[in-house]
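Team,

Forwarding the record for the chain on the shared tracking sheet. I've put the sequence and predicted structure together so nobody has to dig through attachments.
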Amino acid sequence: MRAAIILALSTMAVSNAYAEATADVQAGEKLVKSQCISCHASSFGGDGSGIYTREYRKVRSLNGLKAQVTNCNTMLNLKWFDDDELQVVQYLNQTYYHF
């Protein structure tokens, strides 16, 4: 029984890693440009990317990035699906964070 649980958890972890690796980064970029930049630019100036590159940024890990994207989706009522959030996380991580 214990081995079955460990196998199930391992399979879930591999599935999650695969999903993250195959997320459509370009789709994430489009979502960021159409839904996020205007708010970030009004708060941080310029093109809004300062929110990702500032020294005192809130996001310090991949899990933190996922949580922040989910928070923005919820608070701004963007109505993104889980796949949309994943694509945004992949884009932001590839472009700015490099976790």
